[in-house]
Amino acid sequence: MSEESVPLGGRYVRRLGFGAMQLPGPGVFGPPRDRSVALSVVRRAIDAGVNHIDTAQFYGPDVANELLREALSPYPDDLVIVSKVGAARDDRGQWHGAQHPDQLRTGVEANLASLDLEQIPVVNLRRHPESDVLFTEQLEAMESMRQEGLIGAIGLSNVDLDQYRTAQSLIDIACVQNSYNLADTSGQSIFDACRADGVPFVPFFPLGSAFNPENPVLSAASVKATADRLGATPAQVALAWLLDQAPTVLLIPGTSSLAHLEENLAAADLVLDQEAREALP
Q1: pTM of the model
Q2: Residue 111 structural domain
Q3: In 3D, which of 111, 161, 113, 167 has the Cα closest to residue 137?
Q4: Residue 180 is among the residues annotated as catalytic for this protein
Q5: Measured on CA atoms in the order 146, 115, 64, 217, is the torsion positive or negative?
Q6: Residue range 216-241: average pLDDT?
Q7: Is residue 6 part of a domain?
Q8: In a domain? residue 8
Q9: In this structure, is residue 223 part of a structural domain?
């Protein structure tokens, strides 16, 4: 892997990390299809130099965090675990908002318990677009937990440019995690703001949504043609394109497959030439 690194939550992380969302069962719910393989994927990521893992207590729920704990605890000193709050799951696996300050605290406490940590290095406040809770109240709750030592740093997720600027005026922002990939650049304005400010930007669904079987990222003709010409895979081209957009982009592609993990990790060393840059959106 490339030695390039970016500061995140007070520590430096390599630009290609790992997302734990696909470790649980189908629909990010329940146990993994093969627990031993899931544990092997996590351990292999760390052995390959990954030191940034993205997770959430509501992945499973608890499943992703418990797999991380079993695979890695005691955690490596340089590992930055990033979790998130603002959502919850019911016993049928349905997703619900958990936006009120007390729910944010409950979410942080649940993450601490399932990861077996005294402090989570970074916690992203995931804003629900239809939340009826004042954004500033949420930020105050997160900052309070940071001052208490429950979390090391605060990130934002699913926010717009105005919310990003509001947060900037009130707290230190560790990172922003929004949707952004070759097929979805609707969040270009906040991407550009983070790039200008030097704030790490972490695209979720960097290879397109795992819930969309058509996957417009990997099926795009320009992506396939570029992959063929460079002797790479479409996934590697899509990840390399994101890394090429700004030096502070951090990637967290997720998988429950060792083969896909190796494919994703190799994208850190794929260099796009000018022809690729012109061919891709």
Answers
A1: 0.95
A2: 14-279
A3: 167
A4: no
A5: positive
A6: 95
A7: no
A8: no
A9: yes
